[in-house]
């Protein structure tokens, strides 16, 4: 399996230092690239400039990483012109990435935000392990063939906030890993490949080491539209499904022939202090709920507004055999995590999102838009 191979190369247990021989350039033909870097949090806020531009507050809270041009409404041209800093290690990446937050529901009916942890992939780089409250971002180009980086103004949405049912083909695009113990226990398989550690919905049990969200975006583009009314129709998954695309032979549909990088987001939720079942509502399989009010997890979603400067993303995607944290050294301009922590955006909706809430902010106050 392609992902297994990549992740085996990247897995801390197998290769604590960056694997040798994978930093080299040499054109994209036949090569594979897995750029991975952390982004610390830029803000938690109840706005969504992709789905609900101009609206504050919106129907649910998000956690956002990336450039400081993030706002109630975002410019539709080159976002990198408007941002002056970013929370990502790739300091020319002024994109924004955001997901719903996770809450714990106490048996007394109150909700508390679940804190986030660093990432599982513990190379020595602090940008993977100390993004606390951030997101680990992956851009993967799977051989064979040319991968075309996103264009200025490009945006997309993965998942559907209003969905509450398992969708057969959602498998492998969107999942939750249930860590079996401390230090990311059980973290051996590639993400969202099925098996016992990954679940398409919120894991129906206590996860001793916490929970990780993985959201994989579509990898095919119509080559024309930077966005579409539902933020989805201009992109598509390969006809054979995302997993086979990441192994071999995946084909983009003729309507969406341009292969774009596989963007994947990874969020670690430190649920461990909520594992005492005496605090759980009676009769539930699990006590967590996304900030949308979704206690199934099937409505997990993520938003992307592209904002890399110039052709800096294309250059990295064109670098063959560039893997994981060591691949981030192929990013022309990088910053330290301390610089990233200094980049912040002020919240537009002033809400103490870490208090115990009687009900989730926004949920039920207004009709939900997906
Ligand atoms: C956000 O947008 C408002 C107008 O809607 C503008 O006044 C403000 O400067 C913007 N903030 C940033 C950080 O771009
Ligand atoms: C529920 O329990 C939490 C934790 O003890 C507490 O902080 C919160 O105020 C309680 N909520 C209600 C409605 O009693």
UniProtKB/TrEMBL annotation:
Domain DUF1996: 48-308
Keywords: Signal
InterPro entries recorded: DUF1996
One Pfam assignment: DUF1996
Signal peptide: 1-15
Keyword Cell division set for record: no
Domain of life: Eukaryota
Protein name: DUF1996 domain-containing protein
Source species of the chain: Echria macrotheca
